[in-house]
Amino acid sequence: QSVLTQPPSASGTPGQRVTISCSGSSSNIGSNTVNWYQQLPGTAPKLLIYSNNQRPSGVPDRFSGSKSGTSASLAISGLQSEDEADYYCAAWDDSLNAHWVFGGGTKLTVL
Amino acid sequence: QVQLQESGPGLVKPSQTLSLTCTVSGGSISSGDYYWSWIRQPPGKGLEWIGYIYYSGSTYYNPSLKSRVTISVDTSKNQFSLKLSSVTAADTAVYYCAMGGAPGAPLDYWGQGTLVTVSS
């Protein structure tokens, strides 16, 4: 059971816009920034979005992030076949036992 | 660009200690610009952060693993290491090292990961 809640799956057709949600609580998303990671099949995770909505150099602007209250979202516009991957949200949790927490991951399928 | 590479045994017996090393290239751990983390992913499951270390040797561990985890750093070799004691089958996972992971700071770059299986 992951601390952050993501839908297990999402799908879309090429060119579509899809969103992936990430729900947390006041001790994590509610008080800290959210990062998103993309994990292509058989590879290591890669930083996709940091500080809620910032893209590292090299990440296409088709990827965008947002945060409101204790929830965050990742949006992918102009969906491409190479976007098929697992996506994870993460945030620092300030609870008594502070540590990084992740969502359970969302498997994105491009139909 | 910074690159990270995990190394260590791929098979560990139950109750023994898992030991992995991460070698950093293209950047210096001693620069003090980043923290250095370990994360794991059981087969077919999600990610779990294990802990981080700073070049000074300061560490912070996931409370759920704290009693069994030790992370250390060797700045002369530009490496940091993970030891996880008293392993069970539940510790079977792909183990990743990464640059970053301080509270609020992202995990910027990841190693390719190494599968460690706990089995007799």
Describe the structure concisely:
Chain A is 0% helix and 45% strand.
| Biggest sheet overview of chain B | 7 strands, mixed
Backbone CA Rg of chain B: 13 Å
Which structural class fits the helix and strand makeup of chain B? mainly beta
Total count of strands of chain B = 11
Helix percentage range of chain A:
under 10%
Judged by helices, strands and strand pairing, the structural class of chain A is mainly beta
The largest β sheet of chain A comes out as:
6 strands, mixed
End-to-end separation of chain A in angstroms reads 28 Å
Helix/strand order of chain B: EEEEEEEEEEE
Helix and strand sequence of chain A = EEEEEEEEE
Q: For this entry, what is the oligomeric state of its chains? A: heterodimer
Strand fraction band of chain B?
over 45%
Structure annotation, total helices of chain B: 0
Counted beta strands of chain A: 9
Which protein chains make the most extensive interface, counting residues with beta carbons within 8 Å of the other chain's beta carbons?
Answer: A-B, 25 and 21 residues
Radius of gyration of chain A: 13 Å
Mean pLDDT of chain A: 96
Helix content of chain B: under 10%
Low-confidence stretches of chain B: none
Tell me, rounded to a whole number, the average pLDDT of chain B.
Answer: 96
Please describe what this structure looks like.
The complex is a heterodimer of chains A (111) and B (120). Chain A has 111 residues and is an all-beta fold. Helix content of chain A is 0%, strand content 45%. In chain A, strands 1, 3, 4, 7, 8 and 9 form a 6-stranded mixed beta sheet that branches. Chain B has strands at 3-7, 11-12, 18-25, 36-41, 48-53, 59-61, 69-74, 79-84, 93-100, 107-110, 114-118. Chain B has no helices and 11 strands. With 120 residues, chain B is mostly beta strands. The mean pLDDT of chain B is 96.
